[in-house]
Write the structure tokens for this entry.
Amino acid sequence: MAKRKDGIETRERILRVACRVFADKGYHDATVEEICSQAGTNIAAINYHFGSKDQLYAQVWRCAFDEANKAYPPEGGLGSDAPAEDRLRGTIHSLVGRAVNPSRIGHAGKLLLRELVYPTDVIEDVKHKAMGRLQRRMDALMRDLLGPEASEEQRLLCAMSIAHQCITIGVQLFTGRMPPHVRIDKPSEELVETLTDHINRFSLAGLNAIRNSIKTGPKQHLSATATEMGE
């Protein structure tokens, strides 16, 4: 039993250290040797518990993604029976929080942003499965907000527009590419709330406009056609 406990502790220690090293240096510059040194273990232990550097990175990324979901749950943790407008704000708050306040989830936040800015090809399947769940939830939310007549393309474009508003500022902060005249010096959580409120209002206005165009578009087209025929 003691041997099994030691094995579990070793595995968890490797994961903690690997998350920090991958977050600080990125996948390509991080080395197994450095992870082993900081974790007080050897390459044999990493191979035993994870199989390879790629598989270790994949497991670290999964853990980081799970940590992000705990800190900033999708749709703010609201159930599917909550009003769509509330779920939209929860979704925006979740995305903004992960991007703007990664310190809340420690090295995991930096790791996720690094993979977003400098993507690797070693965990494509892992990212696809993890992000797929969020994308399906977003598509369902767009369906609720735009109505059943909205096309798949309209739902996708709206979802992309909302997500990119939330993520872009986090990427700019992470890479140091904020415009020099823009000052964002609020405490992290206050900044998250400010950005969430703005993006939520902006997005609702856009969604309402698109929903109205879906409802009135065909009628306007038919009316215009009838007028032209009458002329």
